[in-house]
Amino acid sequence: MLLSRFVAVFILYFTAGSGTTVHDSSNDFVEEDYAPQLDYKDPHWCHSPGLTNGEVTCHSPQGGAHRSTLGTRCEMSCDQGYRLLGKSSIQCLASRRWSGTAYCRRMRCHVLPLIPHGRYTCTNGFMVDSRCDFTCDPGYRIEGQHSRTCERKGSWSGAQPDCEDTDPPKIKCPPSRLKVAEPGKLTAMVTWDPPAATDTADKSLDVILVGQEPGTDFKEGASIIRYKVYDQARNRAACKFIVRVEVRRCPDLPPPLHGFLTCSSDGNNYGATCEYQCEGGYERRGVSSRVCQFNRNWGGDPVECVPMEIKSDVKTVSALLDQFYEKRRLLIMSAPNISDPDYQLQNIMIQKSDCGLDLRHVTVIELLGSSPRETGRIKESLLSFEVIEGLRQAFRISRYYFSMLLLDKLGMDRERFITPMASDELFSYIDSFLLDEEERERLELHRDFCD
């Protein structure tokens, strides 16, 4: 029997794989054409098969000793971690060639993709049983599995993790601060540099102010200023500090008896000025104003309001009345003589209500008798004949019966009485018709003074 001049050369290749035998129909072998010398005494139809990193199991129709004779079929399998490329089963043909070729390639997994803000390191690349451990950049944390293993089927275990930003930003507020209000003010302008925020993941951050803007006027007391910042992952950081405005104050300045104060600003704060004013019929004794100083003390000395000095020795009625203009009201009481019963009754009631008259800025003038024994007086001070006559003529006051005339602070005739008046009735009239709102408030404030 003649043999062909051509013998197929069976070449097997070794490559990396995953640990499981996988069949592949591709044939990467190159057949060389040459003429081997045949041994007719012990014929071999096909070249004895071999498989690097694998195992060949053959069955011949002629028995186990005939591994490469005609009709022999060989099963090809790879070692663990290798994958079979080519035919898994080959047969020796009449052409003295095998029906196919195969080789074992070491198995491997696909290249793992990189994760944003992280990296991985593997124990043996992407080969079977290699473990890849994932780590995140500073400020990030693994969300998911921390490692994946290349399994024998050529696939990775688990799922790809993510690097989540869990590190909050950092922000530091300026220190708390105390500001003293300027003279005459209840507020103070406070400024500061806004804080800067940093984050391990984000380069630019929006810092949000919660509270009053710097460079504005802050009111007295404590104001809490807060800043907060969010990174792109909505991690939050915050800080706060206190702005305290101090208004330096002097002790409350009491008004003088029979007087009152008109103060600027808040009345007793640093720089406030208080003007002293006396009620009608009283004059100021002392400085006109006092200022609250930085050391919390009032400048100057206390002030008194003393009864105005009435000049009774004037020669004309106008000179007398000018002393009372816009200061005092006048109650002119006239009687035929000192023994007149209406006068005596009214005089008793007047003396008992002297304090109430003073609170209402009323001065009593008495005109008694007839010429040549006629007298006029303001308390103990006597008036000249010219002034007495001038009063009677100017206001048409009769000498022959009891009467009273009430003049307002402008010297206008407001009311006449021809019978004695109790103090309650007289005061009720004055309070209702002659007092302005400011006088009523001061009257209420000092009403208990006469008790």
UniProtKB/TrEMBL annotation:
GO terms for cellular component: cell surface; cytoplasm; extracellular region; synapse. Its main location: other. Keywords: Angiogenesis, Cell adhesion, Cytoplasm, Disulfide bond, Repeat, Secreted, Signal, Sushi, Synapse. Residues 1-19 form the signal peptide. InterPro entries: DUF4174, HYR_dom, SRPX-like, Sushi/SCR/CCP_sf, Sushi_SCR_CCP_dom. It is found in: Cell surface; Cytoplasm; Secreted; Synapse. One of its GO terms (biological process) is positive regulation of synapse assembly. The keyword Disulfide bond applies. GO terms for molecular function: signaling receptor binding. Pfam families: DUF4174, HYR, Sushi. Disulfide bonds join C136-C163, C278-C305. It comes from the Eukaryota. Residues 56-106, 107-165, 248-307 form the Sushi domain. Residues 164-247 form the HYR domain. This is Sushi repeat-containing protein SRPX2. It comes from Sander lucioperca. The lineage of its organism: Eukaryota, Metazoa, Chordata, Craniata, Vertebrata.
